[in-house]
C-alpha cells in the first residue's frame, strides 16, 4: 500500500466517461489518493457531441495553486490530461515548482489527437506547446497520431514497422522526455501494442494485446489513469504499461456490443481488476 498522492489536471466532461470522471475512480481503485484540478467544465466531451457547454477554469488555477502552497500541500506525481488552452500548459511548470515533492513524477498524456486528427479546437500552436511540455516530463503517453503531430513525422495509422516506430520514439526522446510510452502500435492485424522506450539508455520493450476492432472515446484517459495508479503502487513502467493495456482491452470488450455507447467505455465493470492487482 502507498500513501502517495497524485495530482491530476484535466477537464470535467460531465457526461462522456473521459478525463476526470474516469481518472478519479480509476486511480482511486488502484488504492492511490487522487487530488483533482479541474481545468474546465463541459456538458459533454467534444468527440461526437455538438452544442456542448464549455466553462474555462484557467483563471482559477493560480488561486488554487497558491492556496495549496500556503497550506504546504505537496504531491508525489502530477499527471496531466486534456487541457483546454495553451496557458493551462504553461501552468504545469508552476505547479511542478510549487506543489510537488522532490522526486515527484510528471506524467503527461498529450490528450489532443487520435486516428490521424487533432481533437476539435486544437491547432499547431497548441501542438508546439504540448511538445515543449512533453520535453520536461518523466513519462509521456502519446498515441501514434500525437507522436506524429509533435515530431512532424508522417502519421501512419497501421501497417507499422519497427523503423517507423523507432523514428517516432527517438524524435520524442530527443525533445527531452525521460520515458516514452507510445500507444497504438500495429505490427500485425491481430494485435495492438505499446512501446516503452527509455530515451537515455535507448532500451525498448513492447507489450502487445489482442486487437479488438472498436472505436471509442476515453480509452486513452482510462489507459493513462491505470498506468499512473500502477506506477504509484510501485510497478515499473513496463509492468504498468502492460497492466493498463490489459485493463483497457477489458473495458473495450465490456462495451463493444452496445451500439449506443461509443462516447466512452464501461470502465466501471473492470475496476475490480485494478483493485485485485494493486489494492488488496
Ligand atoms: O478523452 C479525451 C478528451 C478529454 N476531454 C475532452 C475531450 C476529449 C476528447 O475528445 O473532448 C473535453
Corresponding CATH architecture: 3-Layer(aba) Sandwich
CATH H-level superfamily title: Ribokinase
Shape: globular
Oligomer: single chain
Number of domains: 1
CATH topology: UDP-N-acetylmuramoyl-L-alanine:D-glutamate ligase
- Low-confidence spans: none
The percentage helix is: 25-40%
Give a list of the ligands. 3-hydroxy-5-(hydroxymethyl)-2-methylisonicotinaldehyde
Q: What average pLDDT do the residues reach?
A: 97
Short description:
This protein has 280 residues and is an alpha/beta fold.
Chain-wise SSE layout:
Elements lengths: L4 E11 L4 H10 L3 E12 L9 E3 L4 H11 L3 E6 L5 H14 E9 L4 E2 L2 E2 L5 H11 L4 E2 L3 H8 L10 H13 L4 E7 L5 E8 L5 E7 L8 H14 L4 H19 L15 H8 L2
Helix pairs in contact: 1-7, 2-3, 3-4, 5-6, 7-8
The structure holds 3-hydroxy-5-(hydroxymethyl)-2-methylisonicotinaldehyde.
The site of 3-hydroxy-5-(hydroxymethyl)-2-methylisonicotinaldehyde (PXL) has 15 residues, from strand 1 and helix 7.
Please characterize this protein's 3D structure:
The protein is α/β, with parallel strands linked by helices and 280 residues long. It has a single domain (5-278), classed as UDP-N-acetylmuramoyl-L-alanine:D-glutamate ligase, CATH 3.40.1190.20. It has 9 helices and 11 strands. The strands form 2 sheets. Strands 3-2-1-4-5-8-9-10-11 form a 9-stranded mixed β-sheet, with helices on both faces. A two-stranded antiparallel sheet has the order 6-7. The longest helix has 19 residues, at 237-255. It is globular, with a radius of gyration of 17 Å. The mean pLDDT is 97. Bound molecules: 3-hydroxy-5-(hydroxymethyl)-2-methylisonicotinaldehyde (PXL). 3-hydroxy-5-(hydroxymethyl)-2-methylisonicotinaldehyde binds next to strand 1 and helix 7.
